[in-house]
C-alpha cells in the first residue's frame, strides 16, 4: 500500500488549517494523508486523532483528521500574524522532507506559507517555499508547473519584473526547463511521449523578427536541437492562440516565457482546480495554487478545491513513481 501523504500546516493563521479539515471530509479514507502541525491551530471543534507515526494515518476513521503533532510557540488567531510561530512553520516543512526521504510518506503537499512572516519572524533566507524544498533536497534547479485537468503550464522565468525577462531568458535556462519538464511528464504523469508546445516571447512569436528577435535567436534554436534528439516539441508559437480548447488538445504542457503568460490561462481555465507542482525534486511535492488568504481565514468560507486537487495529484504522481 502507498504510504500516506504528508500535508504541512503552512501559515497557521491562514486558511491552511480549515481547508485541511474540509479536504479530509471530501476525501475520507480514499486518499490517506496526515496533517502536520499544532492541533491548537485547527478550527474549534475539529474531530481529529493524534498519531505517533505516519503509518498510523491509514487506520484513522474517515471522520477524523489524522494529526502528526508538531508543537508551535503560540496559539494562532485566524487572519492575525504571530511571528513567534514562524520557526514552527519552517520546522514542519523540514520534518516533512525527512519523512518522505525515509519512505514514511509517499509525497508532500504543502499548505501556503507567508514568506514575509517567516523572514521577519525566523530569519528565513530562501526566496520561497520551492527554493527551501530544493535546498533541503540538495537540488540546484527545479521547475514550477501549474497543472489542472484541462491544462498544464510551465513558466521559464517566474517572479521577476517583465522588463528583466528578455535578459533572463537564456538558451541554457530554456533548455534546462524543457528537459526537466519532459522527464517529469514521463516519470510522474505516465506519458511515454510527452508533447510540448513552446510559446514565443513576443507578440506573434516575433513575426519573423519584426516584433523582437528573441524568438529567432533564443527560443527557436533550442526547440530545433531538442526536436532533433527526438523530443516531441514545437514552437515558438504565438501565445495568443495557444490556449483555446482545440489548441490545448494538441499538447500535454505549454512552456511559457514568463509568469503571467503561464498563469493567466490556467487560472482562467480552472481557477479553483489548479495545482502547483515542483518538478525536479527527488520526491513528489504539490501545493494548492493560492495563498494564505488572511482576509477570509477563520470565516469558514475558504474553498478547498485546489487543496483536494493537490492531494489527488500528489497521490497519482507517487503511484506513477511506484511509491
TrEMBL record:
It is found in: Cytoplasm. One of its GO terms (molecular function) is zinc ion binding. Transmembrane segments: none annotated. The keyword Oxidoreductase applies. Its cofactor is Zn(2+); Mg(2+); Co(2+). Pfam families: PdxA. Substrate binds at residues 129-130, 267, 276, 285. It catalyses: 4-(phosphooxy)-L-threonine + NAD(+) = 3-amino-2-oxopropyl phosphate + CO2 + NADH. Binds 1 divalent metal cation per subunit. Can use ions such as Zn(2+), Mg(2+) or Co(2+). InterPro entries: PdxA (IPR037510), PdxA_fam (IPR005255). GO terms for biological process: pyridoxal phosphate biosynthetic process; pyridoxine biosynthetic process. Its EC number is 1.1.1.262. It comes from the Bacteria. Coiled coil: none annotated. Keywords: Cobalt, Cytoplasm, Magnesium, Metal-binding, NAD, NADP, Oxidoreductase, Pyridoxine biosynthesis, Zinc. One of its GO terms (cellular component) is cytoplasm. Pathway: Cofactor biosynthesis; pyridoxine 5'-phosphate biosynthesis; pyridoxine 5'-phosphate from D-erythrose 4-phosphate: step 4/5. A divalent metal cation binds at residues 159, 204, 259. The keyword Magnesium applies. Homodimer. Catalyzes the NAD(P)-dependent oxidation of 4-(phosphooxy)-L-threonine (HTP) into 2-amino-3-oxo-4-(phosphooxy)butyric acid which spontaneously decarboxylates to form 3-amino-2-oxopropyl phosphate (AHAP). Belongs to the PdxA family. The active site is located at the dimer interface. PANTHER family: 4-HYDROXYTHREONINE-4-PHOSPHATE DEHYDROGENASE, D-THREONATE 4-PHOSPHATE DEHYDROGENASE. This is 4-hydroxythreonine-4-phosphate dehydrogenase. It comes from Gemmobacter aquatilis. The gene is pdxA.
